[in-house]
Amino acid sequence: MKLYISVDMEGITGLVDHTFVDSSRYNYPRGQKIMTAEANHVIETAFFEGFAEVVVNDSHSKMNNLLIEELHPETQLISGDVKPFSMVQGLDASFAGAAFLGYHSMAAKRGVMSHTMIFGVRGMHINDTAVGELGFNAYVAGYYGVPVLLVAGDDETALEAEALIPGVTTAIVKKRISRSAALCLTPEKSGVLLREKAKEAIAARDRVKPLVPPDKPVLSIEFANYGQAEWANLMPGTKIESGSPIVTYEAKDILEAYQAMFVMTELAMRTTFC
């Protein structure tokens, strides 16, 4: 069996603001160490519980945050940027399950460092379903028939995962106080929790169904300002909804929708404040 793990950074215990997740700031090296340790707890549990192969995708920012020299030696790590499928690069039908670690809640919702891809996104939908990074990535996994077994992050992330993926196991490593403050487990305690929850998730894997995406999904992204929508609308096939900063795209499948989202948000980041 193979396990796929996508590791973001904002949902790791003890990481509560941008100084831990921005490579130019003073707390970032501490964030890397704790992030790598949390990944190892799940990786080691997966191998112990019978998985023959574990592939880890570094899914934060430039996607080169995990300390490969400190990972379990049998781990295969996808690291670096640019990746065509970003946070779910390398995921395919060969995996028996997926785990999302260090995840955060979607844009404009409560939660530590909540956002969706970029801070210029106010909301994102697939058809009528609101999604953040967690939901979109789960849909890609579902396209391949892969169930999301475990989601780890703060308490708001757990609620988002449980509302979207019936039967998913969640590990709450910190509880939101505000968007930049949390009641955190120590790394030692988060490690104990992650091992317990990973074991629980693996045991329950046959009861979790893949989150199957809709056929020919319509992606809609609401941006913070009209300038961002104008940049996103430069991608062929997109439309701006009249009188709003919402850009839509009719995709042939969820994979095309995912790459469209990636391109649209990258373009939108070119918008200046004034």
Structure description:
With 274 residues, the chain is α/β, with parallel strands linked by helices. The protein has seven helices and twelve strands. A hairpin with a 5-residue loop joins strand 11 and strand 12. It comes from Paenibacillus terreus. This is M55 family metallopeptidase. InterPro entries: DppA_N, Peptidase_M55, Peptidase_M55_sf.
Give a brief description.
This protein is an alpha/beta fold and 274 residues long. It is built from seven helices and twelve strands.
Q: Please state roughly what percent of the residues sit in beta strands, choosing from under 5%, 5-15%, 15-25%, 25-35%, 35-45% or over 45%.
A: 15-25%
Any idea what the radius of gyration is?
Answer: 18 Å
Question: Care to count the β-strands?
Answer: 12
Q: Please outline the major beta sheet.
A: 7 strands, mixed
Question: How would the global form be characterised?
Answer: globular
What string, H for helix and E for strand, traces the elements in order? EHHEEEEEHEHEEHEHEEH
> Helicity, in percent?
25-40%
Question: With helices defined by DSSP (H or I, 4 residues minimum), what is the helix count?
Answer: 7
Biggest sheet strand order reads: 3-2-1-4-7-8-9
> Average pLDDT, to the nearest integer?
98
Derived structural class: alpha/beta
Spatial separation of the terminal alpha carbons: 52 Å
